Amino acid sequence: MKKIAIIGTLDSKGEEYSYLKNIIERQGLETLVIDVGIFDPSIEADIKNEDIAKSVNESIKMLQEKKDRGYAVEIMSKGAVKVVKELYDKGEISGIISLGGSGGTALATPCMRTLPIGVPKIMVSTLASGDTRPYVGVSDLIMMHSVVDISGLNSISKKIIRNAANAIVGMVNNEEVEDDKSEEKKLIAATMFGVTTPCVTKAREYLESKGYEVIVFHATGTGGQAMENLIDGGFIDGVLDITTTELCDELVGGVLSAGPNRLEASVKRGIPQIVSTGALDMVNFGPYETVPEKFKDRKFYKHNPTVTLMRTTKEECRELGKLICEKLNKTNSKTAIVLPLKGISMIDVEGQPFYGQEEDQVLFDTIKNNIDNKNIEIIEVQQDINDERIAILMAKKLIKLMENK
Prior knowledge:
This protein is α/β, with parallel strands linked by helices. It is about 40% helix and about 20% strand. The strands form three sheets. It has a six-stranded parallel β-sheet with strand order 7-6-8-9-13-14, sandwiched between helices. It has a five-stranded parallel β-sheet with strand order 2-1-3-4-5, with helices on both faces.
């Protein structure tokens, strides 16, 4: 019988977890209750808080005496991550669910993030209507807004908890293994932005026609992080990194940075890759009024009411070129860098607002002058990035690199 892990602080929310547990079990599934609270629980746990603390060489008594809530949350979270991962690896749980405020969310979500994509995970949280990136990361966990605080049972909280329980039961009960050959296909990761969509779409269609499965990541920060994570985990066979724009936000201070490790997983894993300069003409911000004052004299384009783009300067393009070379020069696998000389995004072509031959040329020259790895081929193409000839060229080149790996 499938079993769902219920993880939470039983010293403060026992009534709520008991209600959740009963709804799940009434539908025929087993539960495994994990206590990550610090003090004595109000309901019985299958895995006790002292076991969680011991898993990372700490003791509940010590945490109680220390009276440092932040430290206790950190320790119990580390222990819970270890225990939950072991349970999943042993095949003892098929899904995980939790309820909580800020502390409970901080405790439970790291456990959920450690489980593979596809494993059902639901966090009912008071924080779900705000910035969930610190909790979700690059995982597929679902954050469900609790609407009211997780503090006792009432007509509202019972409905929310019941919906969450039904959702996790439905996901676990209806899990199916697809009866197709997709698992046998080689996986290619590709990066896309609105301004590189025609290129990525054409390349994807070509690769799929040749029997590859293409997973497209939206280059919005979390998209790049998710891709790097899957590459690092060994899921990806080839990379079509057409849209490297997240590097701009990391360098300049935009809102869509994928962090300092973007463009590194393929190098580390030795994965064949095609890299291009898609959307390196722009830094991303929110609504125009949110753009930092220091950029007030720059060139902007209002993509929509909630997205403002800022054109990269020649100096920023030079730094971006150096950054790309610094990362790619460490590779031991076959790599091709494709430079679309007539424009690096949909709005960086003649007649469009970010058209910048000088800025682009600085970017191209920097890359050409700083690549010093014999595994890397630089391909210059006299079209803009969304020309279908470039898309097909990159797709064919990636297939060749993968076949000759």
